[in-house]
């Protein structure tokens, strides 16, 4: 379960890393292709065009990968925008609050699977390992 946690966090880091690598490689390829097009290098023009186009495509794909790595998932966004109801006094607190603005107690949520009390920002239950979503 701890591994699962790492995997989901590492997935985006991998996307970003790979995307960045692809973007840079693509730009270099495109630059080489365009440079060859502008010079009279003894390379067939088909190959020059192919190199430039492949480079641009790779850079584009890389940029998409980077964006995917940065972008938050829909569930994560919803989670952030959801008002947090205090389990002690029932006050509805602004999203991302850590403490209740009415009674000052730490805002927590309960695991849907085992009922353990978790931190608001917990993604997984530290008692049973289940992925914690909305507690409603
Ligand atoms: Zn409260
Ligand atoms: Zn649990």
Concise synopsis of the structure shown:
The protein is mostly helical and 136 residues long. It contains 3 helices and 4 strands.
- Rg from Cα: 24 Å
- Which ligands accompany this protein? zinc ion
Mean of residue pLDDT values: 81
What is the strand arrangement across the widest sheet?
A: 1-2
What is the H-and-E element order? HHHEEEE
Give the DSSP E fraction (strand runs of 2 or more residues). 5-15%
Structural category:
mainly alpha
Largest β-sheet summary: 2 strands, antiparallel
Oligomerization category of the chains in this entry: single chain
Query: Residue ranges: pLDDT <50 for 5 or more in a row?
Result: 1-7
**Inertia-based shape:** rod-shaped
Number of helices: 3
N-end to C-end Cα span: 23 Å
- DSSP strand count: 4
Count of separate structural domains: 2
- Tell me the helix content: 40-55%
Describe this structure in words.
The chain is mostly helical. Helix content is 52%, strand content 7%. Helix 1 runs antiparallel to helix 2. The two termini are 23 Å apart. Residues 1-7 have low confidence and may be disordered. Bound molecules: zinc ion (2 copies). One zinc ion binds next to loops.
């Amino acid at each position: 379960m701890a591994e699962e946690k790492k995997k989901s966090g590492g997935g985006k880091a991998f996307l970003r890393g790979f995307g960045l690598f692809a973007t840079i490689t693509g730009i270099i390829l495109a630059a080489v292709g365009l440079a060859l097009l502008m010079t009279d290098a003894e390379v067939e023009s088909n190959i020059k065009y192919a190199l430039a186009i492949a480079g641009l495509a790779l850079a584009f794909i890389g940029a998409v990968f980077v964006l995917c790595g940065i972008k938050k998932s829909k569930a994560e966004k919803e989670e952030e925008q959801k008002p947090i109801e205090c389990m002690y006094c029932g006050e509805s607190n602004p999203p991302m609050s850590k403490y209740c603005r009415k009674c000052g107690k730490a805002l927590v949520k309960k695991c849907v699977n085992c009922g353990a009390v978790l931190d608001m920002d917990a993604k997984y239950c530290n008692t049973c390992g289940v992925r914690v979503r909305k507690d409603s």
